Amino acid sequence: IDGTLMEHLIKALKAAGEPTRLRILAALSQYELTVTELVSLLGQSQPRVSRHLKLLLEARLVSRFQEGSWVFQRLNESNLTAQITAMIDLSDPTLKQDSERLGRIKVENARRATDYFAANAGDWDQVRTMVGSDENIETAMRKTIANRVFDNMIDMGTGTGRIVE
């Protein structure tokens, strides 16, 4: 193994070789999660969870991505990450508890999102303007689409449908 690969392997194994970080890897093998969800799952402070995530990110076992105003963590799609997570025994009592707790967290988040939408559905066009004006969105879409001709168009989550008018 060349030196760089050896260093990466050692860093990854050191990062994974700690109980809380193994719990994080096990959780991320099931879902993409926010720091808030991980804090709730692990019962640890946000700074502590963020520190664990930083080590996993630096070891390239985990990556983060933004979706709207949310930042999610997920497992990296690498052979090394897959090999490490394959060795985690999800039947371990702590990990089984985590999995059950995670299921409840996800159900509660879905309920909150549904409640939010139900409470704001009538005002959805107004709420959407907090993200950007219709004119700015239309300008960006026209610039992206330019003069291309499409045979089909798919409406994917445009809210009330205003943008496809």
- How far apart are the first and last residues' alpha carbons, in Å? 58 Å
Summed over residues and divided by their number, the pLDDT gives a mean of 87
The succession of helices and strands, N to C, reads: HHEHHEEHHHH
**Which ranges are low-confidence, i.e. pLDDT below 50, for 5 or more consecutive residues?**
none
The quaternary state of the protein chains shown equals: single chain
> Quick one: how many beta strands?
3
Shape: extended
What summary fits the major beta sheet?
Answer: 3 strands, antiparallel
Question: What is the CATH level 1 assignment of the domain at 3-90?
Answer: Mainly Alpha
Structural class: mainly alpha
The gyration radius over C-alpha positions equals 21 Å
Annotated CATH topology of the domain at 3-90: Arc Repressor Mutant, subunit A
- The CATH superfamily of the domain at 3-90 bears the name Winged helix-like DNA-binding domain superfamily/Winged helix DNA-binding domain
Strand content: 5-15%
The CATH architecture of the domain at 3-90 is Orthogonal Bundle
The percent of residues in helical segments reads 55-70%
Largest beta sheet: what is the strand line-up? 1-3-2
DSSP helical segment count:
8
Keywords: DNA-binding, Transcription, Transcription regulation
Protein name: HTH arsR-type domain-containing protein
Pfam families: HTH_5 (PF01022)
Domain HTH arsR-type: 1-95
Question: Briefly, what is this?
Answer:
This is HTH arsR-type domain-containing protein. Keywords: DNA-binding, Transcription, Transcription regulation. The protein is mainly α and 165 residues long.
